[in-house]
Every structure is written in structure tokens, then in C-alpha cells.
Write a structure and sequence with these properties.
The complex is a heterodimer of chains A (115) and B (113). Chain A is built from no helices and eleven strands. With 115 residues, chain A is mainly beta. In chain A, strands 2, 4, 5, 6, 9, 10 and 11 form a seven-stranded mixed beta sheet that branches. The radius of gyration of chain A is 13 Å and the shape is globular. The N and C termini of chain A lie far apart (31 Å). In chain B, 35% of the residues are buried. Helices cover 0% and strands 59% of the residues of chain B. In chain B, the strands form two sheets. In chain B, strands 2, 4, 5, 9, 10 and 11 form a six-stranded mixed beta sheet that branches. A five-stranded antiparallel beta sheet of chain B has the order 1-3-8-7-6, with no helix packed on it. The termini of chain B are far apart. The chains are: A mainly beta (115), B mainly beta (113). At the A-B interface, strand 9 and strand 10 of A face strand 4, strand 5 and strand 10 of B.
Chain lengths: 115, 113
Amino acid sequence: ETGVTQTPRHLVMGMTNKKSLKCEQHLGHNAMYWYKQSAKKPLELMFVYNFKEQTENNSVPSRFSPECPNSSHLFLHLHTLQPEDSALYLCASSQERSMNTDTQYFGPGTRLTVL
Amino acid sequence: KNQVEQSPQSLIILEGKNCTLQCNYTVSPFSNLRWYKQDTGRGPVSLTIMTFSENTKSNGRYTATLDADTKQSSLHITASQLSDSASYICVVSARIAGNQFYFGTGTSLTVIP
């Protein structure tokens, strides 16, 4: 195990539903990330939190809303998603965003299917 | 444009054989390069990290090389095992606004008995 947990591991939701993904890290890290992984595409960075402050939002649609209540927990709130949002959503953490050799530790991901 | 290209896209090898995966990048200014292993249904796990001054790094049966002049890296797997079946992702970091990561699409390796 990498020290980063994600729940749920699988989620099926309709386009009108509201759901949340949860990520928790037990590594004492200060930076947390949300990534989207679609088949045959590179990982896409969605959001970055460094010391609980959102430092990056890579033009992600507003139907994805992140929340970072403390440096150990990260949420991704989902509402009115589209079928093309179906993907593996990965959470990662690292010591600190700006460190040159910072290594990210990934959770197992949430497999999301939007019907 | 900062990009990372990996080849081959997929590879099947016999157990016990060696293989080499390639990563070419155009990321600048270069900070470091990582290789990750991602098992099916799990998140990526870091195998190696190399900075500009390093041209080889080993982790057990995995050996990564880096040629910063030609902007190429390779991951060599020796005496492959069934558990090596996974996707291998090359990630290049650029010294932009702290640290920007550029991901390849990965090479899917299948080791068969």
C-alpha cells in the first residue's frame, strides 16, 4: 500500500446525481492532487492543493468541485456529470508541490461510470 | 510544446526474457524524469527518478537510463516475471511554476508463461 486511500473504489452514477469521491493520505504530506485517467490518454492533472490551499485548477469544468478541509483529506464533489467524464480518478499526495524531486504517491483510484 | 512519447504502446514477452521500454520527451526546462509502474486496478507506483546529472538508476531488476542531450530515457527490465505485467508510465518534470508534470500514455507490458 502507498499510504493513500480512496473511496469508493467503484461508482456508477446518473447524469443528474450528486456524489463525492474521498481521498485520505497517512504520509504527513502537504500537497494533494486529483488526476483523471482515461483509456489511452496521459494522466490529466485536475487540481492541486498545497498546504490546504488550491494552487492549480487546470481548466476543469465546474461540475467537478474539489474540497480540502485539511492536509490529510481531499474530496472531489461531482454533479451533473456527462458520460465522457467516465474514467479512473486518481488521488495523489507528495511532500510539497514546489520541491524539485518531489515524488507523488498515488491512491488506487475510483473507477467512475456516468450513465 | 512540452510532450512525452512512449514506445511501444504495448508489448508481450515470455517470462524470463528481458525488455526495454522507450521514452522521448520535449519538456523544457527539464527538472527530472520518473518511471512509474501501474498494475491493473491500482494507482501508479514510482520505480525510479533521475535528475539532469544522472544517466542511470537501478531498482532491483529495473534499470532506467537518461540521455539529457537527446532527451531520451529507457527502462530495461531484466529476467521478467509474471508480476511485471503492468503499464509503465514515463513522467517528465519541468521547472515551471514550481514543478509541472508531463505524463506519457504508458507502455502496456504483458509477461506470459
